[in-house]
């Protein structure tokens, strides 16, 4: 099983520690993982802004970079969602279809493909999980509060197995943080208000470390937390799963 | 008026033509599998709970106790319209020719419901039950007499029951009239009846 | 004014935003509790969606069937291609009866057609009788929500409005008192009305009847006290069979307010002896929306308002920020079809979180349609030069790894080394309330190359 590591553009540039944690975690689990050079972006920021047509070059490059792998794994639910749901703008060649079918968000890959939840991590802190919308409602990484059915959560399954970690319960379990790509800039007032409210929910719930499987949401929330000097640390779930005492 | 009529006709043909041109290929009408909604629960108890939930009172009593019960609950009611033969409390007689405006100061209306729906506390009341359609709405308070064996689990069964009726007017009533339009505060007694008592007999 | 500007305005009073958000979130929670308590909820939604899809694919036949059955029952049926025709038809009926006083229960369609101002200009008194609608009518505002029209008003504001218009005593916003005064005021209007106008929740093809749902009883008070009942409906309100009401009445109130059913679900099939009943069937842009494959399903909407209650943007920007008859997520996919230019900011007033699609009782893929409208708008509407050029250039850079490597490096270099005042300036909307990420010395590419060399 050959796995291509997909590091989203903003993670590569701004959060190399998240990419490193993802890579180390996969290697620790003996996954045959490769990091194809020449990666840029899945095209999501363009698509969500209405410039889907201009993103075709980026999408084609993505397929080119990853077509040879059995699985494509990335630490960002929204990017994976974009590949799975919006690469319909490309001609559906067998290669495009293969890439779309085999793209996995990291947690989903760990739990569904590798069948592992206990990764031997240790992280003795009170953790609040931000369930990013594209991962939750798009990739169905967990049950959504709107939908009737059994409760499940891929990220919770993983976090619950981390030694010493206490997963805190939030008042609003899966409300959007307000990032939304260019929404964060063009609807600045609402975006920051939504983020502020999310942060407050974590503070009210005694959370020490806010985590999630999509660092774009975390970038937005961390920006607010740092600006307001609030006592919350922000870490990607890969960093927690890769941590040991 | 001629001009208007022509215009109306054009509207009709134009709309239907436009639909024909723009509608997708025929999609199947789904069959409703009512089995999927089956629930093993106490229909009577759920019905009672739901009447309370929607702001109504419910009493299960003997038929002969109706008058006493109503007099106890609505002791001040003077102008009472009853369309039910199960009670003798009516003080104001009405017929299908009664002008509904004359019912403006009715204190209490007593009508019979055809059947109740357990899942939502709704009771089916027809134009025949009310004699004058405005009655259950314009009255200050409302009593619905309902036979306790006429309860059904859900709305799918309800529509089976009424499928063969004489269709003129009918209403599912679930509780007294209410509004939450001022700051989401629930206030019972908007335009319709201020209270609803269901007497299960 | 676009949505962002209006939303920013609304957000100037944060405590009001918090209050608005909480009030609607409370309704959303009631919806969850109520919907999830019944057996087969998700199946019901699937049925609702499939029945509506069938309706749209056979709409002309169902409308004709409905018309013929309604006429057999003595109901007059009228057809209007647009708002103007609709208003003229209503007016012609009023003229025929020399009606001067009209009571109207909730109808988003008449709101859409701007019927009230049209009739008022002709000297006709039109009173909205739903309490929330009466409140916004007195305030001379449009409704800000389709189910809770005055959700943006505090009880103190209602108190003041009633003092001014109904002569009530100051009550510090006592809801019981205010409702009892409104009851008196509107009862008088009901008793004096010549004609009652209502909306239609569902029109049934196989019986020619229709259903109107209210909690207050205002539709029935109006209809049963007036000589003439005019019911106005969009063409998409049709359902094939009466038994399908079982599906839709179970979905509607639970989705809207969390009630198991509205207080009154009134089934009109024949006019009362000596009275008249009219139905006006209106297109007003709906067949055009029917023609758009990607957006057709927006016509499934049964106007429950659940997507508004759940929308984190709607809750924090208020209904008026959408500047359209139907606000919120559903309004944002309906309105571009009516006027792409005017409403082009609405599909962008979303994070595409998808909660709207999850609560929708007829499973409209709202967030996917928002995404699709964005693609249409960018092509057909003039875009801000800066936004356009940035994204076009990004498209080119992201397709070329070498350009991307260079751009990433220079951007990180700039962020790390530029003085703070140059980064956090007025042009940087990100930095107004948020810090930028701390810039590390190397990106992952560089780290990876280094590690492989060393390893």
Structural description of this entry:
The complex is a heterotrimer of chains A (245), B (201) and C (455). Chain A has 245 residues and is α/β, with parallel strands linked by helices. Chain A is built from 13 helices and 8 strands. Chain A has 2 domains: 2-113; 126-241, Rossmann fold (3-Layer(aba) Sandwich), CATH 3.40.50. Chain A has helices at residues 9-14, 16-28, 44-48, 56-66, 77-86, 94-102, 106-113, 133-138, 154-159, 183-186, 188-204, 215-227, 237-241, and strands spanning 2-5, 32-34, 71-74, 103-105, 126-130, 166-167, 209-212, 233-236. In chain A, strand 7 (209-212), helix 12 (215-227) and strand 8 (233-236) form a beta-alpha-beta unit. In chain A, helix 11 crosses helix 12. The relative contact order of chain A is 0.15. With 201 residues, chain B is an alpha/beta fold. Chain B has one domain (31-200): Rossmann fold (3-Layer(aba) Sandwich). Helices cover 27% and strands 21% of the residues of chain B. Chain B is built from 6 helices and 11 strands. Chain B has a 5-stranded parallel sheet with strand order 1-11-6-3-2. A 4-stranded mixed sheet of chain B has the order 7-4-5-8. Chain B is globular, with a radius of gyration of 21 Å. The model of chain B is unreliable at 1-8 (pLDDT under 50). Chain C is an alpha/beta fold and 455 residues long. Chain C folds into 3 domains: 1-37 and 303-382, no CATH class; 38-284, Rossmann fold (3-Layer(aba) Sandwich); 389-454, no CATH class. Chain C has helices at 3-10, 14-36, 41-57, 59-72, 83-96, 108-112, 115-121, 131-138, 155-166, 175-192, 218-225, 245-256, 286-291, 306-310, 312-317, 328-338, 355-359, 366-380, 385-398, 401-417, 420-423, 444-454, and strands spanning 76-80, 101-104, 125-128, 195-198, 202-204, 210-214, 228-234, 238-239, 264-268, 276-282. In chain C, the strands form 2 sheets. In chain C, strands 1-10-7-4-2-3 form a 6-stranded parallel sheet, with helices on both faces. In chain C, strands 8-5-6-9 form a 4-stranded mixed sheet, sandwiched between helices. In chain C, a hairpin with a 5-residue loop joins strand 5 and strand 6 (210-214). In chain C, 58% of the residues are buried. Chains B and C meet through helix 1, helix 6, strand 8 and strand 9 of B and helix 2, helix 3, helix 4, strand 1 and helix 5 of C. Strand 8 (169-173) of chain B pairs antiparallel with strand 9 of chain C.
């Amino acid at each position: 099983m050959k796995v291509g590591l997909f590091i989203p553009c903003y993670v590569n540039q701004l959060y190399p520690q998240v990419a490193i944690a993802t890579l180390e975690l996969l290697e620790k689990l003996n996954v045959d993982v490769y990091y194809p050079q020449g990666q840029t972006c899945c095209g999501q920021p363009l698509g969500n802004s209405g410039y889907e047509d201009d993103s075709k070059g980026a999408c084609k490059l993505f397929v080119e970079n990853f077509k040879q792998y059995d699985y494509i794994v990335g630490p960002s639910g929204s990017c994976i969602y974009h590949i799975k749901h919006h690469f319909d703008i490309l001609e559906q060649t067998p290669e495009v279809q293969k890439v779309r079918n085999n793209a996995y968000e990291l947690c989903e890959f760990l739990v569904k493909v590798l069948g592992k939840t206990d990764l031997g991590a240790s992280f003795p802190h009170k953790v609040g999980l931000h369930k990013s919308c594209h991962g939750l409602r798009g990739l169905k990484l967990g049950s959504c509060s709107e939908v009737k059915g059994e409760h499940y959560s891929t990220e919770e399954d993983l976090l619950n197995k981390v030694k010493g970690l206490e997963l805190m319960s939030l008042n609003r379990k899966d409300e959007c943080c307000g990032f939304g790509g260019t929404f964060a800039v063009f609807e600045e007032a609402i975006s920051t208000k939504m983020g502020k409210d999310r942060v407050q929910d974590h503070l009210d719930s005694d959370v020490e470390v806010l985590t999630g499987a999509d660092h774009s949401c975390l970038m937005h929330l961390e920006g607010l937390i740092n600006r307001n000097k609030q006592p919350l640390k922000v870490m990607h779930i890969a960093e927690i799963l890769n941590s040991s005492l | 008026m001629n001009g208007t009529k022509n215009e109306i006709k054009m509207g009709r043909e134009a709309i239907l033509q436009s639909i024909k041109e723009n509608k997708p290929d025929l999609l199947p009408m789904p069959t409703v599998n009512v089995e999927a909604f089956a629930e093993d629960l106490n229909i009577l108890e759920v019905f009672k709970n739901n009447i309370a939930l929607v702001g109504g009172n419910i009493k299960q009593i003997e038929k002969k106790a109706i008058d006493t019960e109503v007099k106890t609950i609505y002791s001040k009611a003077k102008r009472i319209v009853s369309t039910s033969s199960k009670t003798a409390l009516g003080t104001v007689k009405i017929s299908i020719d009664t002008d509904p405006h004359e019912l403006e100061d009715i204190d209490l209306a007593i009508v019979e419901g055809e059947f109740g729906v357990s899942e939502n506390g709704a009771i089916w009341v027809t134009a025949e039950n009310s004699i004058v359609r405005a009655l259950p709405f314009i009255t200050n308070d409302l009593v619905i007499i309902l036979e306790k064996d006429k309860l059904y689990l859900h709305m799918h069964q309800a529509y089976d029951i009424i499928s063969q009726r004489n269709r003129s007017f009918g209403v599912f009533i679930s509780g007294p009239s209410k509004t939450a339009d001022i700051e989401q505060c629930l206030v019972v007694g908007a335009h319709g009846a201020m209270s609803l008592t269901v007497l299960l007999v | 004014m676009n949505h962002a500007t209006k939303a920013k305005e609304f957000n100037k009073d944060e405590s009001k935003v918090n209050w608005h958000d909480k009030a609607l979130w409370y309704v959303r929670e009631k919806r969850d509790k109520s919907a999830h308590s019944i057996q087969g909820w998700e199946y019901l939604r699937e049925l609702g969606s499939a029945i509506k899809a069938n309706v749209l694919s056979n709409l002309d036949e169902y409308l004709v069937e409905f018309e013929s059955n309604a006429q057999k029952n003595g109901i007059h049926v009228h057809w209007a291609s647009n708002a103007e025709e609709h208003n003229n038809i209503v007016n012609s009926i009023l003229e025929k009866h020399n009606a001067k006083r009209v009571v109207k229960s909730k109808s988003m369609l008449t709101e859409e057609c701007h019927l009230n101002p049209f009739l008022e200009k002709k000297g006709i008194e039109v009173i909205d009788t739903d309490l929330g609608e009466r409140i916004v009518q007195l305030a001379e505002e449009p409704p800000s929500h389709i189910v809770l029209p005055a959700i943006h008003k505090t009880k103190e504001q209602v108190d003041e409005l009633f003092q001014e218009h109904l002569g009530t005593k100051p009550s510090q916003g006592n809801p019981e008192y205010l409702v009892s005064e409104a009851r008196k005021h509107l009862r008088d209007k009901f008793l004096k009305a010549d004609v009652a106008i209502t909306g239609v929740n569902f029109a049934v093809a196989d019986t020619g009847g229709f259903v109107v749902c209210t909690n207050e009883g205002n539709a029935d008070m109006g209809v049963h006290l007036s000589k003439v009942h005019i019911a106005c409906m969009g063409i998409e309100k049709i359902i094939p069979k009466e038994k399908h009401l079982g599906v839709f009445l179970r979905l509607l109130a639970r989705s809207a307010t969390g009630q198991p059913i509205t207080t009154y679900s009134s089934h009109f099939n024949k006019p009362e002896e000596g009275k008249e009943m009219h139905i006006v069937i209106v297109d007003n842009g709906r067949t055009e929306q029917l023609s758009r494959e990607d957006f057709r399903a927006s016509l499934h909407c049964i106007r429950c308002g659940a997507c508004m209650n759940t929308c984190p943007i709607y809750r924090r920007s208020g209904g008026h920020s959408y500047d359209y008859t139907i606000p919120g997520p559903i309004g944002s996919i309906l309105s571009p079809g009516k006027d792409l230019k005017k409403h082009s900011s609405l599909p962008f007033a979303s994070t595409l979180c998808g909660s709207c699609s999850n609560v929708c009782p007829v499973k409209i893929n709202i967030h996917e349609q928002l995404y699709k409208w964005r693609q249409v708008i960018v092509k057909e509407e003039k875009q801000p030069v800066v936004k356009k050029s940035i994204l076009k250039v990004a498209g080119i850079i992201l397709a070329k790894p070498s350009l991307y490597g260079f751009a990433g490096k220079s951007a990180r270099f700039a962020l790390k080394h530029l003085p703070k005042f140059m980064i956090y300036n007025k042009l940087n909307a990100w930095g107004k309330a948020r810090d930028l990420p701390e810039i590390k010395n190397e990106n992952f590419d560089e780290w990876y190359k280094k590690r492989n060399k060393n390893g």
